[in-house]
Design a protein that fits this description.
alpha/beta, Purple Acid Phosphatase, chain A, domain 2, five-stranded mixed β-sheet, 8 helices, about 30% helix, binds fe (ii) ion
């Protein structure tokens, strides 16, 4: 499927289980269909030797963009849901296939946002029951910009807009969407909010407490960090107007990162314990060096089958 990222962004700111291939379950889908869904995943594997106390695997997906909307929604939203299916018709299938894959690999599931395309009762009912399903793999998430979108681009997307729906969104998701950490086999995963291209004022203060733990850190958020190479990739190779990253230096032809965000990213670059950063939002895969110590892994769209698998050692 060929599509440009701007098609999606009408807004400016816009405990492990093992199973085997023979008994996997895509929640009611016929076996042949499930096989096909699994074979459609585009899996890229990485080995990260970062000091895990025990080797483990994580399946990283992002940008599922579920488009459920039923009669509880306005006609406008029901129409939006139908229209968006043009892009996101395989979202649920690919999400379930990724979980099935994670079960098969005895892996943790990491999701870096845009699980839903827009706010709707049915989207959030799906998300909360999905993460609570029997047999769900261990998981950890960050939110995306679309989690807070009512109609996609109908209003300025800022903190006030986010706060209109924050509590409703938070209820559906399994961990704190503002800032949250989770230690898995000696690796400290730290997820935080950067969905509108900035970070919270107290983010360094909160990170310092994570650094004090002395464990290798993997950071996760939705919008990738600016790097010269990622910027070049988005503008030159992907032919995008802007890079859709946070912390863009001033003098580029797009909104520069604010002072607090720039300060945070510069600080993060000096942290030897930060071993990797994972994100999404771009709907296209990209891997690049973020700092002397950490690579940034941007996974493409779960809606089109993109999956990164990390073997942590
Ligand atoms: Fe997205
Ligand atoms: Fe996004």
């Amino acid at each position: 499927m060929t599509m440009n990222r701007r098609d999606f962004l009408k807004c400016g700111a816009c405990a492990c289980l093992a199973s085997s291939l023979s008994n996997f379950d895509l929640s009611g889908f016929p076996k042949a269909f499930a096989d096909e869904a699994l074979s459609n995943l585009k899996v890229v594997d990485f080995t990260l030797k970062i000091g895990a106390t025990k080797p483990f695997t994580a399946v990283h997906i992002s940008d599922t963009h579920l488009t459920f909307a039923d009669e509880r929604e306005t006609e406008r939203k029901q129409k939006l849901a139908k229209d968006r299916l043009r892009y996101f018709g395989k979202s649920e299938t690919n999400l379930r296939a990724a979980v099935t894959y994670a079960k098969e690999k005895d892996a943790v599931l990491l999701h870096t946002g845009d699980m839903v395309d827009f706010l709707s009762d049915k989207n959030f009912e799906f998300v909360s029951s999905f993460y609570a399903e029997d047999g769900m793999v261990p998981h950890f998430v960050s939110s995306g910009n679309h989690e807070f979108s009512h109609y996609l681009g109908e209003a300025k997307e800022d903190e006030a807009y986010k706060m209109q729906s924050f509590d409703r969104v938070q209820k559906a998701f399994p961990n704190d969407l503002r800032f949250c950490s989770r230690v898995i086999n000696g690796v400290n995963f730290v997820a935080f909010d950067d969905v509108y291209y900035y970070v919270a004022d107290d983010v360094i203060e909160r990170f310092e407490k994570e650094v004090e733990k002395g464990l290798p850190i993997v950071t996760m958020c939705h919008v990738p960090f600016y790097t010269p190479e990622l910027y070049r990739f988005m503008i030159e190779d992907q032919k995008e107007r802007i890079s859709y990253t946070i912390g863009v230096p001033s003098g580029k032809n797009e909104r520069a990162g604010d002072e607090n965000t720039m300060k945070f990213l510069e600080w993060l670059k000096t942290q030897p314990l930060m071993k990797a950063h994972i994100s999404g939002h771009l709907h296209v895969n990209h891997v690049d060096q973020f700092s002397e110590y950490a690579k940034q892994y941007v996974v493409g769209g779960n809606f089109k089958g993109d999956v990164f698998v990390y073997h942590f050692e």
